[in-house]
Amino acid sequence: MTTRAESLDPVVRDRLVCPQDLGELLNAGDELYNPRLRVAYAIDELGIPNMLIDDARTVTDDEHRAITGAAEQ
């Protein structure tokens, strides 16, 4: 099954950056994830990313490791 992040139009996806640090975002299922700030931006059921800083959710250490594949330290 395709995730919402994977379903984004490639042209749109290539232009999306984190509104906080303007850095690259990772596809994380139904969210776009900034591993530097450990925040995730939701993508709604219509495929529209919510890139509002106030609506971003903080990601736990376990979620961060799962998304990035980082080894435990």
| Stretches with pLDDT under 50, minimum 5 residues | none
Series of secondary-structure elements, N-terminal to C-terminal: HHEEEEH
Number of strands: 4
Number of helices: 3
Strand arrangement in the largest pleated sheet: 1-2-3-4
* Terminal CA distance: 32 Å
β content, as a range? 15-25%
Output the radius of gyration.
12 Å
Based on Cα principal axes, name the global outline.
globular
Mean pLDDT: 94
Q: Helix- and strand-based class? A: alpha+beta
Largest sheet: 4 strands, antiparallel
Helix content: 10-25%
Q: In words, what does this structure look like?
A:
With 73 residues, the protein is α+β, with helices and mostly antiparallel strands. Helix content is 25%, strand content 18%. It contains 3 helices and 4 strands. Strands 1-2-3-4 form a 4-stranded antiparallel β-sheet. The longest helix is centred in the last third of the chain and has 8 residues, at 61-68. It starts with a helix and ends in a 5-residue tail after the last helix. The relative contact order is 0.19. The mean pLDDT is 94.
Task: Quickly describe the structure.
This protein has 73 residues and is of the alpha+beta class. 25% of the residues lie in helices and 18% in strands.
Structure keywords:
alpha+beta, four-stranded antiparallel beta sheet, single chain, 18% strand, globular, 25% helix, 73 residues
Task: Walk me through the topology.
Elements: H1 4-7, H2 10-15, E1 26-28, E2 31-34, E3 39-42, E4 57-58, H3 61-68
Antiparallel strand pairs: 1-2, 2-3, 3-4
